[in-house]
Amino acid sequence: MKVLIPAAKIQERIAELGAEIDRDYPGGEPVYLIGVLKGACIFLADLARATNVPARIEFIGISSYGKGKSSSGEVKVTKDLDVSVEGHHVIIVEDILDTGLTLSYLVKLMAQRKPKTLRIATFLDKPDRRQSPVQVNYVGFKIPDEFVIGYGLDYAEDYRNLKDVCVLSQ
Ligand code: IMP
Q1: Bridge partners of 58?
Q2: End-to-end alpha-carbon separation of the chain, Å?
Q3: How far apart are CA 165 and CA 148, in angstroms?
């Protein structure tokens, strides 16, 4: 296992993203941070504390990958939102943008819920793998096409609690 992004660098970048969010939502209205389970939960917890906007935290469950490292190509909702976000600011918070299939699907789904504004924050972005274009507003780090674990990201449900982002060797 090789460290790709150390914990301290992650925290520095998240502080910057929090400041960007503060600048983008000056109105004092609530902002729904919608975390995509399970990978985004750790990023969301840190991002929510890095911003001073009145954040509301919700989660949505999506499955697009099976137990391994490759996409099944299929996206389905496994846990829907518990609230209506109609008329509210929404930021979808995702762990990693890879092919883009998951986020493309989620953006369409969320747009149907008529939020006041809809933005996307992703902790990691692997631009080389994109199949479906997605407009992202907040990106933590762009990374090469390697399978990564830690800071919420798993391999077959393991390694989510690593503090650093690491590359998983074969
Ligand atoms: P996409 O639909 O291909 O963009 O995939 C997004 C989802 O795939 C993420 O939410 C992750 O759950 C998973 N994923 C993609 N790349 C990785 C990786 O390098 N490590 C762990 N999970 C990944």
Answers
A1: 34
A2: 9
A3: 7
Express each pLDDT in 80-124 by its tens digit: 999 999 999 999 999 999 999 999 999 999 999 999 999 999 999
**Other CB atoms closer than 10 Å to residue 71's CB: what's the count?**
16
Q: Is the CB of 122 under 6 A from ligand 1?
A: no
CB distance 148 to ligand 1 below 6 Å: yes
> Which whole-number Å values give the CA distances from 165 to 3, 77, 146, in the listed order?
6, 26, 11
* Confidence (pTM): 0.94
Distance 98 CA to ligand 1 centre (A): 6
CATH for the 2-167 domain, from 3.40.50.2020, 3.40.50.10770, 3.30.40.10, 2.40.50.100: 3.40.50.2020
